[in-house]
TrEMBL record:
A molecular function (GO) term: deaminase activity
Classification via Pfam families: Ribonuc_L-PSP
SUPFAM superfamilies associated with the record: YjgF-like
Gene3D superfamilies, A to Z: RutC-like
Upper lineage: Bacteria, Bacillati, Actinomycetota, Thermoleophilia, Solirubrobacterales
GO annotations of cellular component type: cytosol
Record CDD domains: YjgF_YER057c_UK114_family
Protein name: Endoribonuclease L-PSP
Family membership: Belongs to the RutC family.
Length: 135
């Protein structure tokens, strides 16, 4: 399996994501549904706290990646939904929010501001796409 991270000339090279991630060869695709900031009983965690909810979402996504036989390095795309883009960006700048992605080869990404998530207490939801070598 071959993976290429491409940031074309003429476009700003953003430090938080790669513009294009191209993968070819024998692979297994993994699609992880939107993860919300919940515990194992589907109770909201860190109500009102963007940083706390982001960490819970990422911890939950880590569990799902491991269950699928993948790691954070296998993630090629993420989609982030949030009620307040500015509040989430501020939370993502905190040192404890870093460390999930390889700074040299982050996944492709889209950040979307929404008016509501599936529970009014949810501030952030993230889904992922990962690719691993075929079994």
């Amino acid at each position: 399996m071959r993976r290429e991270h491409i940031n074309p000339d003429g476009l700003f090279q953003h430090p938080s994501f790669t513009r294009i991630v191209s993968v070819s060869g024998a692979m297994r695709l993994i699609f992880i549904s939107g993860q919300t900031p919940t515990d194992e009983n589907y109770k909201v965690v860190a109500e009102g706290d963007y940083a706390g909810q982001y960490r819970q979402v990422m911890d939950n996504l880590g569990v799902q990646l491991r269950a699928a036989g993948a790691t954070w390095d296998d993630v090629v795309y993420r989609r982030i939904f949030t009620l307040d883009v500015d509040a989430l960006i501020a939370a993502l700048r905190a040192p404890e929010a870093r460390g999930y992605w390889n700074a040299e080869t982050p996944p492709g990404s889209t950040l979307v501001g929404v008016t509501r998530l599936s529970d009014p207490a949810f501030l952030v939801e993230i889904d992922l796409q990962a690719i691993v070598a075929a079994d």
